From TrEMBL:
One of its GO terms (molecular function) is xanthine phosphoribosyltransferase activity. It holds the Pfam family Pribosyltran. One of its GO terms (cellular component) is cytoplasm. It comes from Ruthenibacterium lactatiformans. Belongs to the purine/pyrimidine phosphoribosyltransferase family. Xpt subfamily. It is found in: Cytoplasm. This is Xanthine phosphoribosyltransferase. The gene is xpt. The lineage of its organism: Bacteria, Bacillati, Bacillota, Clostridia, Eubacteriales.
């Protein structure tokens, strides 16, 4: 997606340790016009899939998923929570997810009342690095007996191998911008 790539080159910042900071437009301050185009592109790429739910993980995926949902006929968005709270009750699907950015392992949770075998799910998230968040969400979808139509990622960091893990699991993966390298503070795209 050329619009996204240009925005990454213009406003993204490469930080030490292979971190690409895009908080000025994607995952802290959100450019809603750009997110709308991202949602439109996910709809184009998953055209023909009868999506009934979009699943993401808190917090950065929520805005992306909510705007994208409008392009899928305003299907519900469910986000897996990283911490237990008083208003998360009843039976839960859970999976362990390790965050590359924060170097923390979470027990992510999603209420069983919102996802079941009747659902066809699209998983969306902002970044794909080592693939742990996606694999955890895929596990939750499978626990529910739902069908996983695939995963949509805004930015995939190819050099960290998560995309290869997800594809090896037999899951369709559509990444809008694939980064091959962040060496010397420079973003190099794979496609």
């Amino acid at each position: 997606m050329e619009l996204l790539k240009q925005r990454i080159l213009r406003d993204g910042q490469v930080k030490e340790g292979g971190v690409l900071k895009v908080d000025s437009f994607l995952n802290h301050q959100m450019d809603v016009t750009l997110l709308n185009e991202i949602g439109r592109e996910f709809r184009r790429r998953f055209d023909g899939a009868a999506i009934t739910k979009i699943v993401t993980i808190e917090a950065s995926g929520i805005g992306i998923a909510a705007i994208a949902a409008q392009h899928f006929g305003s299907v519900p968005v469910i986000f897996a929570k990283k911490t237990r709270s008083r208003n998360l009750d009843g039976a839960l699907y859970t999976a362990k997810v390790h965050s590359f950015t924060k170097d923390i392992t979470y027990d992510v949770q999603l209420s069983k009342k919102f996802l079941g075998p009747q659902d066809t799910v699209l998983i969306l998230d902002d970044f794909l690095a080592r693939g742990q968040a996606l694999l955890g969400l895929i596990d939750i979808v499978r626990q529910a007996g739902a069908q996983c139509a695939g995963c949509g990622i805004v930015i995939e960091k190819q050099q960290q191998g998560g995309g290869a893990l997800v594809r090896a699991a037999g899951v369709r993966l559509e990444s809008l911008a694939v980064i091959a390298s962040l060496e010397n503070g420079t973003v190099t795209f794979a496609q």
